[in-house]
């Protein structure tokens, strides 16, 4: 059985989608979800779905052996950032080479970098009157949103689309493609 560990900071709708998709799969399993937000909605989702979920603080995350040991204890074949907003410390990148991936809600290299997440990305896309946006799934390196790109998918934007409409379109792409791309990486 291949093991996935998900890191999520917020709502966790992608985490839920990935967990649900792989519940039907006999060879891949979400072993744990880790969050840096004590009251993140992803925690309730995990409780409902029966997936172990754990909270960690910044001190634990940025360099403690205990955190690394916990992560190694899950024996992850892939660590998936699904709406996770902290930069990954180099210690973790070195410990899991080519095993940490992220999803970004835009077509990188556009709209990436520190502070570009969630609705802020969609608002920037709207403010620039872009005619398309999309998703980028990429490996994680020491810099925000700069690791090698694995997959991108696009969606058209109508002039009448609100920021919320754009977010919905992007989420649909994420739900459709993120589990598929994870599965491909693990096959
Ligand atoms: C997703 O759209 C994801 O692409 C984005 O946060 C959202 C989380 O939604 N990630 C980033 O912006 C990372 N820079 P969710 O919590 O409902 O899965």
Can you tell me about this structure?
By secondary structure, the protein is α/β, with parallel strands linked by helices. The chain has a single domain (2-186), classed as Rossmann fold, CATH 3.40.50. It is 39% helix and 23% strand. It has helices at residues 13-23, 41-49, 58-61, 65-73, 90-95, 118-127, 163-186; strands at 2-8, 28-35, 53-55, 78-81, 100-104, 132-139, 149-156. A seven-stranded mixed sheet has the order 3-2-1-4-5-6-7, with helices on one face. The longest helix is centred in the last third of the chain and has 24 residues, at 163-186. It starts with a strand and ends with a helix. The relative contact order is 0.16. It binds glycinamide ribonucleotide. The site of glycinamide ribonucleotide (GAR) has 17 residues, from helix 1, strand 5, helix 6 and helix 7.
As residue ranges, the low-confidence spans are: none
Largest sheet, strands/sense/barrel: 7 strands, mixed
Fold-level CATH name = Rossmann fold
Q: Write down the overall mean pLDDT.
A: 96
- Beta-strand portion reads 15-25%
In the CATH classification, which architecture applies? 3-Layer(aba) Sandwich
Spatial shape: globular
Assigned CATH class: Alpha Beta
Helix content: 25-40%
Radius of gyration: 16 Å
Can you count the beta strands? 7
Termini Cα gap: 11 Å
Given the helix and strand composition, which structural class is it?
Answer: alpha/beta
Query: Order of strands in the sheet with the most strands?
Result: 3-2-1-4-5-6-7
Order of helices and strands: EHEHEHHEHEHEEH
């Amino acid at each position: 059985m291949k093991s996935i560990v998900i890191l999520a900071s917020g709502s966790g709708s992608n985490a839920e989608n990935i967990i649900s998709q792989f519940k039907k799969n006999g060879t891949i399993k979400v072993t744990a979800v880790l969050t840096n937000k004590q009251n993140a909605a992803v925690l309730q989702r995990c409780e409902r779905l029966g997936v172990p979920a754990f909270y960690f603080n910044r001190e634990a995350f940025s360099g403690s052996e205990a955190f690394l040991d916990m992560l190694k204890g899950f024996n992850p074949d892939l660590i998936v950032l699904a709406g996770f907003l902290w930069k990954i410390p180099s210690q973790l990148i070195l410990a899991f080479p080519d095993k940490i991936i992220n999803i970004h809600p835009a077509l990188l290299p556009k709209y990436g970098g520190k502070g570009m997440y969630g609705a802020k990305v969609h608002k920037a896309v709207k403010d620039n009157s872009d005619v398309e946006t999309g998703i980028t799934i990429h490996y994680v390196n020491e810099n925000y949103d700069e690791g090698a790109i694995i997959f991108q998918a696009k969606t058209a934007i109508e002039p009448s689309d609100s920021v919320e409409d754009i977010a919905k379109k992007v989420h649909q792409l994420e739900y459709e493609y993120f589990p598929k791309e994870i599965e491909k990486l693990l096959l």
